[in-house]
């Protein structure tokens, strides 16, 4: 199935052409209005209605409504297709995970590796503590080693937690920046399309005035 937005754009251009309007410039401008992410449906409809009233000699609310309803129809199709794709991805991910577990039963999961690291630290510090304990008579030495072990384990856990938090923060920052960039681009595209529509209006106005003078 072709992209829903592309299908709508093709339909829109055909509809505008049937109304003797510039389907290329006006089609891009209307698509920019309706596909904008930072406006509600009411705001999009109002902007569409204002645009159509400015371009049609005899504004017809039914035309505006039919374009808006058709856009919503294609949007619903696009959302449904997106959900179907996500479902397929989830099913595929489940199959891959099941296959991975079946072929890697002898591999240790990450939490088990963490436990192994802890055990290694305990063994290391435990051995050093025993050596110090038997090589000296100090109960203070044993206490110091125990404190060192607790500190090492604390650093290990804090490092793991910090690593996870840093990755999550980096992911959120990246998504936030991508959203900001997308909003800026959408705004720039709408401004460009708006300028084209204004130019088209000026040309149509001059052409009409020229025709009236000839009469």
Task: Tell me what the structure shows.
The protein is mostly helical and 215 residues long. It starts with a helix and ends with a helix.
Provide the fold topology:
Elements: H1 4-18, H2 23-34, H3 41-55, H4 61-103, H5 110-135, H6 139-214
Helix pairs in contact: 1-2, 1-4, 2-6, 3-4, 5-6
Please give a quick description of this structure:
The protein is mostly helical and 215 residues long. It contains six helices and no strands.
Number of DSSP E strands = 0
What is the helix content? Answer: over 70%
What average pLDDT do the residues reach? 75
Largest sheet: none
* Element-by-element helix/strand order: HHHHHH
- What amount of the residues lies in strands? under 5%
Structural class: mainly alpha
Shape: elongated
Query: What gap, in angstroms, lies between the N and C termini?
Result: 52 Å
So how many helices? Answer: 6
Query: Low-confidence runs (pLDDT<50, min 5 residues)?
Result: 129-138
Radius of gyration: 33 Å
List keywords for this structure.
215 residues, mainly alpha, 0% strand, elongated
């Amino acid at each position: 199935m072709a992209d829903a937005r592309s299908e709508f754009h093709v339909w829109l251009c055909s509809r505008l052409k049937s109304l003797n309007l510039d389907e290329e410039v006006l089609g891009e401008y209307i698509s920019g209005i309706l596909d904008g992410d930072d406006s509600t449906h009411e705001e999009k409809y109002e902007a569409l209605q204002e645009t159509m009233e400015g371009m049609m000699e005899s504004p017809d609310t039914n035309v505006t409504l039919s374009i808006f309803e058709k856009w919503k129809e294609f949007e619903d199709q696009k959302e449904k297709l997106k959900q179907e794709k996500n479902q397929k991805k989830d099913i595929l991910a489940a199959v891959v995970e099941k296959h991975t577990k079946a072929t890697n039963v002898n591999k240790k999961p990450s939490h088990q590796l963490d436990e192994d690291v802890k055990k290694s630290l305990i063994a290391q510090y435990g051995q050093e503590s025993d050596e110090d304990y038997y090589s000296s008579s100090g109960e203070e030495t044993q206490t110091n080693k125990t404190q060192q072990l607790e500190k090492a384990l604390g650093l290990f856990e804090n490092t793991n937690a910090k690593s996870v938090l840093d990755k999550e923060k980096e992911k959120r920052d990246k998504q936030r920046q991508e959203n900001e960039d997308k909003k800026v681009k959408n705004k720039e595209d709408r401004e460009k399309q708006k300028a084209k529509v204004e130019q088209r209006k000026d040309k149509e106005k001059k052409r009409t005035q020229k025709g009236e003078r000839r009469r």
